Give the backbone structure.
Amino acid sequence: MKILVPIKLSLDTSQIKFDESTGEPIYEAIPKKISDADKCAIEEALKIKDKYQGAVTVVTIGSTKDHYRMLRDAYAMGVDEAYLIKYDSPEYIPANQVANIIKSFFEKHGPYDVILMGQWSNDTHSSSLQGMLSSLLNYPLMPNVDKLDFDGTFFIGSSNMEDGTYTFKAKPPLIISVSTEANLPRIPTLKDILRAKKMPINELNISDYIESIGKLDIVKVSRYVVERLRNIIKIESEDDVAKAIDMIVNVLKGEGLI
Amino acid sequence: MNFEFSEEEEMFRDSVREFSERYIQPKWVEVDESNKIPYDLIKKMADQGLFGIPISEEYGGMGGTYVMTAIAVEEVAYYDPAVAIAVYLLLNNGWPYALELFGSEEAKSEILPKVVSGEAFFGIASTEPQGGSDVAGIKTFAEKKDGVWILNGEKSYISGVREVTELPMGGGWFLVAKTGSLEWGHRNITAFAVLPKWNGKLKDGFKPTIYEEIGRGGLSTGGFILENFEVEDKYVIGELNKGFYHVMEGFNLARILVAAACVGSARWALDAAMEWLRNRKLFQDRRLSSFQGIQFKLAELYADLEAARLFTYKAAWLADKIYKEKAEGYNPKDLNIPVALAKMKAPETATRIYEEVLKWHGAYGYTKESNVYRGWIGTFSYTIGAEGAQNIMRIIIARDLLGREYVRG
Ligand SMILES: Cc1cc2nc3c(=O)[nH]c(=O)nc-3n(C[C@H](O)[C@H](O)[C@H](O)COP(=O)(O)OP(=O)(O)OC[C@H]3O[C@@H](n4cnc5c(N)ncnc54)[C@H](O)[C@@H]3O)c2cc1C
């Protein structure tokens, strides 16, 4: 089984710092790392490989030191091949173009039986890539899986949606997107890391995969500010507690909350 | 000159950090309270390859460097600032590595894989009731009778006594004893791998006691009496009557990791303190971090910590030159001063940092809930002298600076 895992370098959201005056993130102060769900996708791919053999390929777009490091980390986890589609402009690549780049990567290096990917990335959460790829490659999509099993023939995935838990079943070829609930990714040992050091990072030219990068500028990112009503109900003595409760209920009713 | 860690060292640090965040951080207080590191945590550390970092692959180890070993100890101590787990880790890397350097092939292939797999403990037993600093004055005596060594004596304040008796496989120590004569001196000491419990069986002639200590709860300290305790010849470590020199090299190696543990724990204390200083507000909503009286102290403590860290990694780097790369022109004795600097500076810096951090936390720091005190008492074990008293570090530095003959009188 050949498995492709497209991965993205994103902000380490556990270490986000905001500029207190503008409410904007201080990008230089935030470390970059592989998107959490993408790491879970690698883990699922490796679990299949451990049990049923196969080869796991990861691919990413970028060219910073952190991109190389991310691919080295993927090797340490146990993937077989890592590709870097070199793109060194800071310009944001819209999801439809990422989908097209991965499609042409798939055509040049594939086919792959399964594409495993993270449900969304830490920093944009758009979840759009999976659907676009499914449509471009004409592969069915098993979306947002929280638990995945493979019995050698069928993939069985379950996904906790707002209205209940959905259980899907499908044979490859297939695209599966996984959430961060799917697993606890393995932590490489020193031996894994020393082995990873010897693996090649295959560099590719982005111009061989797409003609030009279109534009979708992110002009501003700011922190959510929750506006508080500051509706304060004061009571003088304990005897007024019941009265205060009534007043709170009335306020909540007035806001249409209950 | 290069002050950067390599990419694989950085990757290894991140992997130990991730492991510690996942498995050690949620447990460290419980470990300190319950006086025990759960065996499943020891096994997890073994599966992660943390007990054989500098050990060669032929003995099941990771084949890593000593710098990497120090990195692992520093990170584990950051997530276990009470340092019991970090010390368990450092003993089971430093002393098995000393065994690899000097032990017999038979002893190494028997003991090392079991330590790496987490089934056995292997520490150091040098201290005796009459005083730990005076290694030349030890009284434990080993005599060869009918091809077997018979050991008699008492060791005290030894880490891992309960662990050796409780681990399923067992374990023991790099132990020094007098051979030939009991006279005070360096040239009649031999090192042995003494395994009171091995393959799950307790041997005759080993009488352990466990001490009740004030800190570093997760790892036991105890003593034991050896009474006609038999040791096979294959367990002699290195050359006969050269044990003093072998154990001193072992101490140099272990002390680097002791310093790394103190640095990791103190780094946690400063990070926790900075979080507190940024958020604690008084005097009309001013942050504690806005007062210069606090900023100056923080800067001084950070400078001391950074110095201790540089001493530590310089010593680890030098250990790699000597033992791993066997680089020309580097000798084991070159480690004496760099290691003594690290072991003198790191524990004292750590306890000083803790003292200030406790004060910054005000009354909250004095509560058990704040947990800061655990790191304070934990690292204090090393200002007392586990792996060598502080004044002994000063003696080593002064002796090597002035010259042996000039410090005698
Ligand atoms: C938690 C803990 C764990 C330990 N684990 C181990 C272990 O696993 N294995 C092991 O072998 N030992 C272990 N020890 C013992 C440790 O190595 C000794 O405490 C240390 O060597 C000092 O010996 P001592 O306690 O007998 O003090 P002493 O040697 O009696 O020294 C007492 C004091 O006198 C000072 N002093 C001694 N000589 C001089 C001098 N010439 N000039 C100036 N000052 C001097 C010392 O600095 C010290 O402050 C452990 C100790 C502790 C606290």
